[in-house]
Amino acid sequence: MSDILNLINAGSIKEKIKNGKREDNRGFEDFRDLEIKTSVLSSADGSAWVKLGNTEVVAGIKFAVGTPYPDSPDEGSMSLNLELTGISSPDFSTGPPQIDSLEYGRVADRAIRSAEAIDFKKLSIVAGEKVFTIFIDCIAINADGNLIDATEIAALAALKNAKIPKLDENNNIISKEYTDQKLELLNIPLSFTFEKIEGKIIVDPTEAEEFASDARFSLGLVKDTVVSCQKSKNGVFTEEEIFKMIDLSVNKYTEIVKKIEALE
Amino acid sequence: MSDILNLINAGSIKEKIKNGKREDNRGFEDFRDLEIKTSVLSSADGSAWVKLGNTEVVAGIKFAVGTPYPDSPDEGSMSLNLELTGISSPDFSTGPPQIDSLEYGRVADRAIRSAEAIDFKKLSIVAGEKVFTIFIDCIAINADGNLIDATEIAALAALKNAKIPKLDENNNIISKEYTDQKLELLNIPLSFTFEKIEGKIIVDPTEAEEFASDARFSLGLVKDTVVSCQKSKNGVFTEEEIFKMIDLSVNKYTEIVKKIEALE
Amino acid sequence: MSDILNLINAGSIKEKIKNGKREDNRGFEDFRDLEIKTSVLSSADGSAWVKLGNTEVVAGIKFAVGTPYPDSPDEGSMSLNLELTGISSPDFSTGPPQIDSLEYGRVADRAIRSAEAIDFKKLSIVAGEKVFTIFIDCIAINADGNLIDATEIAALAALKNAKIPKLDENNNIISKEYTDQKLELLNIPLSFTFEKIEGKIIVDPTEAEEFASDARFSLGLVKDTVVSCQKSKNGVFTEEEIFKMIDLSVNKYTEIVKKIEALE
Amino acid sequence: MSTRLDGRKKDDLRPIKIELGVVKSAAGSCYLEWGKNTVVATVHGPRPMFPKHLSNSQRAVVDYRYRMAPFSVSDRKSPVPGKRDKEISLVSGFALESVIMTEKFPNTVIDVNALILSADAGTRVAALTAASLACADAGLPMKGLVSAVAVGRANGDLIYDLTKEEEDAPDAVDTAIAITMPQKEIALLQMDGFVNKDDWKKMVSMGFSAAEKVYELQKKALLEKYPVNGDINE
Amino acid sequence: MSTRLDGRKKDDLRPIKIELGVVKSAAGSCYLEWGKNTVVATVHGPRPMFPKHLSNSQRAVVDYRYRMAPFSVSDRKSPVPGKRDKEISLVSGFALESVIMTEKFPNTVIDVNALILSADAGTRVAALTAASLACADAGLPMKGLVSAVAVGRANGDLIYDLTKEEEDAPDAVDTAIAITMPQKEIALLQMDGFVNKDDWKKMVSMGFSAAEKVYELQKKALLEKYPVNGDINE
Amino acid sequence: MSTRLDGRKKDDLRPIKIELGVVKSAAGSCYLEWGKNTVVATVHGPRPMFPKHLSNSQRAVVDYRYRMAPFSVSDRKSPVPGKRDKEISLVSGFALESVIMTEKFPNTVIDVNALILSADAGTRVAALTAASLACADAGLPMKGLVSAVAVGRANGDLIYDLTKEEEDAPDAVDTAIAITMPQKEIALLQMDGFVNKDDWKKMVSMGFSAAEKVYELQKKALLEKYPVNGDINE
């Protein structure tokens, strides 16, 4: 949807929110339908396709062999990258460097790191010399709002789906051959993103709602433990609003994490 | 020539072509005068200056010592690069990334590779460790059409002209000293580029003719063997036209390859 | 100050210069007040903060361990970089690649190199394997003219202030620990920049004066030895003007070098 | 006639699965599986082109972006498009321009993106076939479809639709071809290899028949979603 | 209550030194030392925004650039801004936009630059605190100030204003918070760590009190340079 | 007076060969061999400058691009221009602007490209000398020519026009100088080395005489192609 249409749309969305309604008739605290498919791609070491309403994100995992950082010689590493390209929105075909893509990716990445979801010591191959690096590449297929939460779910689902590649005698990856081991996740962090419109707090915003809002808050959680947060946009929140959002997120966590735990 | 003038010019060129004429009175199947000079530059390991009508391309060869690719430890490599800069046309001083330069260079490069013109095994210095990489840098001095064919000829003439550098005891290149060996070419691929204007097929287009055309086809040949092809622009060709172009190319091959074979 | 205001301003500056006056009432051969502070930053291995009138440049030194160049296996190296960012002028927030920054930095860098100010052999750690590289990063905090001379002074003052880091058993730098040795400077090159306005030559120009001028000349000196020079802008100089500028610079050298020699 | 590693005959295509309109917010979209290739293509626009001096006052420009997901190949691919990606994008975009009535939208750009999510040889033709359908799904006025397919040689045989394994044969030749349908003209033709003139002509002719098979599947998918009476090209 | 490595109590800030108007040619500027952190912030503009299609017809845009000097950290940092720098710049710029009356300058950009010359934990909040003062020094119409501070956990204690050493504790949590003053609303909130919900809420509340300490110092610095009667926010 | 490695006397230039109008489609062009240096320079324009806010409403801007072909030096040079290339381009472009009547073409850009095909010391002055001739060949209105040359010191002698070997002497000093002719003013002056004030002044003066030799060759080449009566500078 073009910015101009969004701008026109924003007025009516605000009007509805004031009256306690959302454009798709959800409650303020309701997520859209969430669908997660895994093992969707034969080429990736792990993959997931997430639909959150119309928002769609595909995540693919690739293991690579690299050298460890000097200050952690026996630990592997990870890198999460979110691509917002023209495939999901014409807005991403043009314009300035993709600050949104960078911010959303950073928020998703930081939650996984702080949650210590991956045991990096288990990714060591030869201490001080060779370790696995896990590349988590996420690509938005449809950008209809709340890309942060959808990206986090897709990344975690793909990680849960990942198989560890076999290595040859020189510790290089053998293409398309896997060990019996799956990548173990120590924790499953989830992200919960809120927007504030006309003083009301809503979860899981659509793109049109994002356009009508001027304050965003994202929380990264493992159960009732906070692992990351990010306030964004030029609006502000009160202390009470922040506290309300964390309580709400803790309540939602169990519901959503079940869908990931149920995955192969 | 500026785009505006080209646009005005295109009409008259189309009119002539309809009447069986070209702007420079050539027949549809005639190449412009081709002049090839080699050993033109003291700094390059091989060099050629090609004039095809007003189109001019200089090619220079440089050997470098590098490490082989893991999947071909006893083979050297090559890299062909075509530069279209402001020196040949003001159109290349500005504007978006140079997609033309990339396409023309890729077409010229692919023909040399597919033709297996260079015996990469002979470029091995120490198997698995050190090999020669041949850099073929082509620069357009004047861009008056058919840069693909001119680049291919310049690249091949410069390769034929190339001397293999001497190496010191550490297998590093000794500047400006050469072995007695010349670089052997197993095959000499040539490129033949056609444009379709008002339903007619012409060879060796000028820049103005390129502007008047909406379909291009380039064939890479070694005698009567096809090594590469590329259809470009938003026009289309019939099967018959494609067949006609290959027959014509095979006929022209002998005439042009002679000029390269005659070179030092 | 915006370009538009500078343009309006240029007329009145030219008028004054014609009448033998400068906007700040200095004589044509007078520098602005120069203030140099060193050891201003706890994180750098050496630092200096230079104020030349309103122009301010901060320089910081960082030692790093690297590999030597193949053609000088027992010599360290240096790299001087000048940053002109939005912090010093809104003109630097936008617009084309920063050619000014590149030119000023190159001029300052070349003077230090030609003067052989640093004994690169003393920066060798293990001959052929490990050497120190000295990074001299200069950042303009306020850009009110004559950034070349201010940068040169800041770089030299920071170098004079630099302490050599301690190394561990693997020859890696131990953070925030230093040897007793200071970095020795064999020579102290200074830069002297002139602008020609309405046929008159002035030293140490302000930004407004630079805008009113169409010819610039910078000389790098060690006492009465010339180590570098650069004529810039589209105006010209006579032989006599060039000779006058060098005589003037030699006279000024002693006055300014004293301030650097006096520093800790 | 010998059978191939995967049991196909020389002139068999791999299984092709097409789903239209999968991406809800795009003007048009297509999900396509072709053997082990997986592609999503979307169409947005036409929209006014910026900066204006790059636009064409006579027609719309198709900005086609062929991209491979980092996880679509054996070794992770950098997300930065390389020379090959850009070349394929250029000539594939031209192929689409040959069937879209671009003259109806002067000064605009039509964004067509084709993303390879999983790759096993023939990705450029899978992408172009999907993109052509996404354009139709977007309701763009078109003179026809582009039906793209690879033909080539492996282990001595001239065959349709090579797999990655077949592409790795020592004598392999791979020709990507796109035919405008129903006009039957060549909109894209790219080849690398070493093949005599007569065999090459045979391959080009094979391309026409192979493309017809693709066209039938494209028509079927369109008619399923848009079960109108009459010609889909109107 | 245990004392900290540098002798501070849990709710002590490191010494803060503020100097306004240091950069003569800028519209507004602030030099700030915060423990071993050294920051310079400048404000230029508002100026018309180019290219125009990036400007906002309703208000000014704050272009905030947080940058670390190459010599500000242990290992020389490349001068090219990284992902972290860009993310911090984005959210800090938003925080400033929440107090600047941007609606008074439609279609313009306000350039705010904050340069870290020496770093020892808490650089983003030091930079934002300095930038807020530079905006006030520039005479920009503001609804209030942004007072930024870090709170967190180290070695079991919830504390104010962590040093680099404290940030390296195994249980360290670092929360950067910026409060609009005197409105007391949250303009920036970034955190990484692993902390239960209740402790996290405590930290947020601590952020409010810590920010008030910063605000007092900000007010003092402004009143010293601008000793007007009445409220500085007018 | 000692002779030099290549048999020249101190004040001899290497052989210079000039050919004008070699590049047919350019407005003006010059092929120049100077010892073992080979240069081609072309001039296109003036043309309207984009984006407009970079143009100058009072005059044309000369966009000079000095580039070295990858094969022009011992080790292949990357085609991406480096800092040295950009610096030389900047000051050489200024030198040309000092003789071209740029005020006759406000808001335009004149593209001047000088490409080093083979390099053996003194490439920047060879390029500028060729570029000045290409501008004249293009018929641009000019106040004069720019005649550029290198002077310097090697093995104790002050000499004209150093070769690469001489530049590698331990005491080498290299001064690139460009003189406007017939006005005899300094349009470019770049030097690196270590030389006392008096010798440096001598070198500058030598630059004037050396440039006159270049100027004579430039005039000869122009008069051969344009054998008009009267002064070439009119």
Write a structural description.
The complex is a heterohexamer, with three copies of chain A (264 residues) and three copies of chain D (234 residues). Chain A is an alpha+beta fold. In chain A, 29% of the residues lie in helices and 34% in strands. The longest helix of chain A is centred in the C-terminal third of the chain and has 23 residues, at 239-261. Chain A is elongated, with a radius of gyration of 19 Å. Chain D is α+β, with helices and mostly antiparallel strands. Helices cover 27% and strands 33% of the residues of chain D. In chain D, the strands form two sheets. Chain D has a five-stranded mixed beta sheet. In chain D, strands 7-6-8-9 form a four-stranded antiparallel beta sheet. The longest helix of chain D is centred in the C-terminal third of the chain and has 29 residues, at 197-225. The N and C termini of chain D lie far apart (41 Å). The model of chain D has no long low-confidence stretch (mean pLDDT 94). β12 of chain B pairs antiparallel with β9 (185-196) of chain D.
Which two chains have the most extensive interface, and how many residues on each? B-F, 36 and 33 residues
Q: Give the distance, in angstroms, between the N- and C-terminal Cα atoms of chain A.
A: 35 Å
Mean pLDDT of chain D: 94
Distance between the termini of chain D: 41 Å
Shape of chain A: elongated
Topology of chain D as a string of helices (H) and strands (E): EEEEHEHEEHEEH
**Radius of gyration of chain A, CA atoms, in whole angstroms:** 19 Å
Would you identify the regions of chain D where 5 or more consecutive residues have pLDDT less than 50?
none
Q: What fraction, in percent, of the residue positions of chain D are helical?
A: 25-40%
Which structural class is indicated by helix and strand composition of chain A? alpha+beta
Strand content of chain A: 25-35%
* Stretches with pLDDT under 50, minimum 5 residues of chain A: none
Major sheet of chain A: 6 strands, mixed
CA radius of gyration of chain D: 17 Å
Broad structural category of chain D: alpha+beta
